[in-house]
Amino acid sequence: MLGVHFAITPEQERSLLAAGDSDAVDELIEEIEESWAEDGLRVDTDKAWDGIHRCLTDGTLEPDGGEYPLSHAVLGGRRLHDEYVVVYRTVDEARDVAAALQSVDQGQLRQRFDAIDDPDYRGALDDADFDYTWDNFVEVRAFYQRAAAAGRAVVFTAT
After folding, report:
1. Out of the domains of life, which is the source (predicted)?
2. What local confidence, expressed as pLDDT, does residue 39 receive?
3. Rounded distance, CA 135 to CA 76, Å?
4. What pLDDT is recorded for position 100?
5. Exposed/middle/buried for 53, CB within 10 Å: 0-12, 13-18, 19+?
6. What is the pLDDT of residues 83-125, one digit of tens each?
7. pTM above 0.90?
8. Residue 84 backbone class (left: φ over 0; alpha: ψ -120 to 50; beta: rest)
């Protein structure tokens, strides 16, 4: 599953929150993806989102694992879809996540990465896998800073 974070406009936010079902959310996410033109307010994390979430939480993919606000960087937040990963964070939550991510350095992330002990993790758990996770984490951290500065809510999707 490939992950993408979007810093959505207030209009997009209202539409997503008003969507009545997963089909309506699908259509809105597709529109957002197809019309996206704002550089810096979207970040693709490929498959690294899995490792990032595990490193920022309790080592699992549980959306409620770990502690807020780090738990909300990837999978934590309000689920908007019944079958796929579409997770919404308010503007305030995005600001909280942005602030919390600033305190995570490479050594801390490496320590948490090395502690991953889940047979369902599909990465190699080697130096190259950590470098991949770290590089994508740095992009996610910068993305949240931009989203917070722009006063945007955030949606994460994984398909």
Report:
1. Bacteria
2. 76
3. 21
4. 98
5. buried
6. 999 999 999 999 999 999 999 999 999 999 999 999 999 999 9
7. yes
8. beta
Longest dimension (CA), the chain: 44
Per-residue buried b or exposed e for 109-137, using 16+ beta carbons within 10 Å of the residue's own CB: bbebbeebeeeebebebeeebbebbbebb
3-class secondary structure per residue, the chain: CCEEEEEECHHHHHHHHHCCCHHHHHHHHHHHHHHCCCCCCEEEEECHHHHHHHHHCCCCCCCCCCCCCHHHCCCCCEECCCCCEEEEECHHHHHHHHHHHCCCCHHHHHHHHHCCCCCCCCCCCCHHHHHHHHHHHHHHHHHHHHHHHHCCEEEEEEC
Q: Which domains does the chain have, with CATH numbers?
A: 3-158 (3.40.1760.10)
Q: pLDDT tens digits for 63-86?
A: 999 999 999 999 999 999 999 999
Q: What integer pLDDT is reported at residue 65 of this predicted model?
A: 93
